[in-house]
Write a structure and sequence with these properties.
Layout: E1 20-25, H1 28-40, E2 48-64, H2 67-92, H3 99-122, E3 129-144, H4 146-162
Antiparallel strand pairs: 1-3, 2-3
């Protein structure tokens, strides 16, 4: 039983970030650019942490979902899966011809239509849209271990004076 237990040092327990703030940015790209500048300037970046402060989930709606779109997409993805299975069957069945490919294609389309239709019908019109979600933060703080914090602040202040195009 002890072979399956992990020691406390190997368990990935969430911890708060450590270090002193040396800069804050409105976007992750700006924070990443700052750390890249530090790395290019031979700063010990292994003591740096980028922290997204005040995280939020952003869901962006990409379009309306209809029965036509659901079934069209289901038929297409089912056809690809069925074609793949059919091709594999035809490769490993000597003298079978194109029958496994056609059976796989038709079966894939039917399976794709049935599963997608059941899944979409189960929503009962409560989610008739397609979207993507991502977690973003209001600001991104760059933290450094205390021993290097002042040097990091000075280097990033110099970068800020050079403007947004400097690296």
């Amino acid at each position: 039983m002890t072979a399956f237990m992990q020691s406390p040092s190997t368990v990935n327990i969430p911890t708060l970030p450590e270090g002193w703030p040396i800069a804050s940015y409105n976007t992750y790209q700006e924070a990443q650019r700052a750390v890249d500048h530090l790395a290019d300037s031979a700063f010990p970046v292994q003591g740096i942490t980028i922290v997204g402060v005040d995280p939020m989930l952003v869901e962006r709606v990409a379009g309306r979902l209809t029965w036509g779109k659901v079934l069209g997409s289901a038929a297409a993805s089912g056809a690809w899966l069925g074609l793949f299975v059919g091709l594999l069957l035809s490769l490993f069945t000597p003298g079978a011809g194109v029958a496994p490919i056609i059976i796989g294609l038709v079966g894939g389309i039917a399976f794709g239509l049935a599963t997608s239709a059941a899944r979409y019908a189960a929503t009962r019109g409560q989610r008739d849209f397609v979207s993507t979600s991502q977690v973003v933060a209001r600001r991104y703080d760059v933290l450094s271990i205390p021993a290097n914090a002042q040097r990091g602040r000075d280097m990033l202040a110099t970068l800020a004076m050079k403007g947004p195009q400097a690296a």
